[in-house]
Amino acid sequence: MIRIDHLSKAFESRLALDGLSLTIEPGEILGLVGPNGAGKTTALRCIAGILPPTGGAVSIGNFDIVTQPIEAKKRLALIPDEPHLFGSLTVWEHLEFTAKVYNVPGHATLGERILAEFELLERRNDVADELSRGMRQKVAIACALLHDPKAILLDEPLTGLDPKAIRNLYAALNQRAAGDAAILLSSHLLSQIEKLCTKFLILREGCRVAYGSMDEIRSQLPALQKDASLEEIFFKATE
User: Fold this and answer.
1) Is 174 within 8 Å of 6 (Cβ atoms)?
2) Mean pLDDT value across residues 23-49
3) So what's the pLDDT on residue 220?
4) Closest CA to 128 of 116, 114, 143, 113
5) Residue 239 has pLDDT above 90, yes or no
6) For the segment 213-226, what is each residue's pLDDT rounded down to a tens digit?
7) Backbone phi, then psi, for 86, in 5-degree steps?
8) Which terminus in the chain has less CB density within 10 A, N or C?
9) Taking the model in full, what pTM does it have?
10) d(Cα 95, Cα 28) in Å, to the nearest integer?
11) With bands split at pLDDT 50, 70 and 90, how would you rate the model's confidence at 198?
12) CA angle 119, 188, 86 (to 5 degrees)
């Protein structure tokens, strides 16, 4: 569903991504981790078509994000690290706007269902400027999932969410993965995502230093204990 071939991105003299290649299959939840400046957000923005790559290619459901952007983005959702909402629109108006952009049939029923999923029904008539950081994040997630994307990108999605909201988000992501969505999630909260993700990609200075399931990465770093946590793996791989 998400295919990345030798993806590179340079900013003037700095190479933020250096020949990144991988495939995320339907049903997979890939955790993207790395230190600050490793290239995680750059990778997500290139995959989403926000930043043009310097080299390489990205395809979503076999549609190239550069040469076939409309078809690729119909199947894509990006939840950025900062929820960018329209301050004067209500929660429900955000869903209506999203439904029109993506031409979502039956959006009223779907909207009610997704508001209930993220416990937003009672806030449907609140304008965005009245919402807390966590509530704004939930609205952004609800809008992103409304058109049933099959490629879901999340950049630090847990910021501002309370424990119950995090649990609801995990349930939503597991449900979408079970429905054959491919999910790429970037987070610094390693202990929070360790059990959610099926595979992990560790970046350092724009390069892939480890990739695979927890057991596969442990085998790539033989100095680790067999039951090493994701945090221990992270420090070993990025030192």
Assistant:
1) no
2) 96
3) 84
4) 143
5) no
6) 999 999 888 778 88
7) -85, 115
8) C
9) 0.94
10) 27
11) very high
12) 45
Domain range summary for the chain, segments of one domain joined by +: 1-75+150-165+180-239, 83-148
CATH number of 1-75+150-165+180-239: 3.40.50.300
Query: What DSSP line would sit under the chain, residue for residue?
Result: -EEEEEEEEEETTEEEEEEEEEEE-TT-EEEEE-STTSSHHHHHHHHTTSS--SEEEEEETTEETTTSHHHHHHTEEEE-SS----TTSBHHHHHHHHHHHHT-TTHHHHHHHHHHHTT-GGGTTSBGGGS-HHHHHHHHHHHHHTT--SEEEEESTTTT--HHHHHHHHHHHHHHHHTT-EEEEE-S-HHHHTTT-SEEEEEETTEEEEEE-HHHHHHHSTTS-TT--HHHHHHHHH-
What is the mean pLDDT of the segment spanning 51-66? 96
